Amino acid sequence: MSSQLALEKVAVRYGSFTAVSGVSLSLEAGEIGCLLGPSGCGKTTLLRAIAGFEPVSEGHINLRGHTISQPGGLLPPEQRRVGMVFQDFALFPHLSVRRNIGFGLSALGAGERQARVQEMLELVALADYADAYPHELSGGQQQRVALARALAPAPEILLLDEPFSSLDSELREQLAGEVRELLKRNGVTAILVTHDQHEAFAMADRIALLRSGRVAQLDTPYNLYHNPASEFVAEFIGQGNIVSVTVNEAGELNDGLGRLDMGHRHWRAGEQLRLLVRPDDIEFDELSQLSLAVCGKSFRGAHYLYDLQLPDGQHAPCLAPSHVDVAVGGHLPVRFNLQHVVVFDAAENAAT
Ligand SMILES: Nc1ncnc2c1ncn2[C@@H]1O[C@H](COP(=O)(O)OP(=O)(O)OP(=O)(O)O)[C@@H](O)[C@H]1O
């Protein structure tokens, strides 16, 4: 079975500048993918290439087995069965919700169009707002109109360009989860662009983390977090500090930080490693011999996120229950819990 969408070694250039290169990824029907990465890494460029707004200079893009982009050959955007939801939703302010949703359906007869609009209104739970105008709706409702409008012509793939960025940050993750449910229920294949990993995690089945126009890792949200392929991925995804340690033959780390228990690894005495220490790898333990200086703390509701200083001056984060309230400058007794810690070879900068 061929993929719904397949990119094969795609490169996009702006003049002599290569914005994206060597990007291969595919999505099965009904799968939700995400292009994630820092500003300027090429996310929008790739989305525009899939939509047909940018030509590819190398490689090709296939949609349901048909090549829609290759060097020198580009199926125009209006002939691709691609739906788009833009950052600002791009609704027509002078048209009602009903007419916004029906806008791309001019090829249908009046009866069919009306039925399809009604179906879309129900899909996004806005049937009661059919005659309202965009300015009368909340941000989340406007986004659902944009989604309904993009889905109305039954595209083969839906492209979402930072679809939550104009919404209140409190709402974003919740909406990302809701949109995911809606797309999943309807078997829609989609690609989301975002620089926010929480949105990516809440919405995507698989994420391509981009760095300087290349895929740094293409993986599930779980693996990106727990098995990052490089320090770049580790540092981009989630909180954590990279800490350099020396390990002895027994797997013990310097300064009494604990013991590595990674079964398959045989440590060499004196070996230098770099650990990705996440806030939940260090636990408050009032009986511990190891007390670390508190350099900073921030309140997170049920927890404090502490910034701790290790004996050799490096920093590490610790998430402790918020009743454990130690002032900056004080000391927090902790235990390293290294069962799941990610280990990088100091020399290779790649996870082992
Ligand atoms: N039309 C253009 N002409 C020349 N260079 C461009 C053009 N559009 C984008 N670029 C460059 O290509 C690179 C990738 O840009 P792109 O907009 O795809 O990144 P992005 O990951 O979407 O960033 P952001 O999150 O800031 O939107 C950047 O270095 C950018 O400056």
TrEMBL record:
One protein family per Pfam: ABC_tran
Molecular function GO terms recorded: ATP binding; ATP hydrolysis activity; transmembrane transporter activity
InterPro entries with a match to the protein in the record: AAA+_ATPase, ABC_SmlMolc_Importer, ABC_transporter-like_ATP-bd, ABC_transporter-like_CS, Mo/tungstate-bd_C_term_dom, P-loop_NTPase, Transp-assoc_OB_typ2
Superkingdom of origin: Bacteria
GO biological process terms held by the UniProt record: quaternary ammonium group transport
Transmembrane segments: none
GO cellular component: ATP-binding cassette (ABC) transporter complex
Entry protein name: ABC transporter ATP-binding protein
Annotated source species: Parahaliea aestuarii
SUPFAM superfamilies for this protein: MOP-like (SSF50331), P-loop containing nucleoside triphosphate hydrolases (SSF52540)
Keywords in alphabetical order: ATP-binding, Nucleotide-binding, Transport
Domain ABC transporter stretches: 5-237
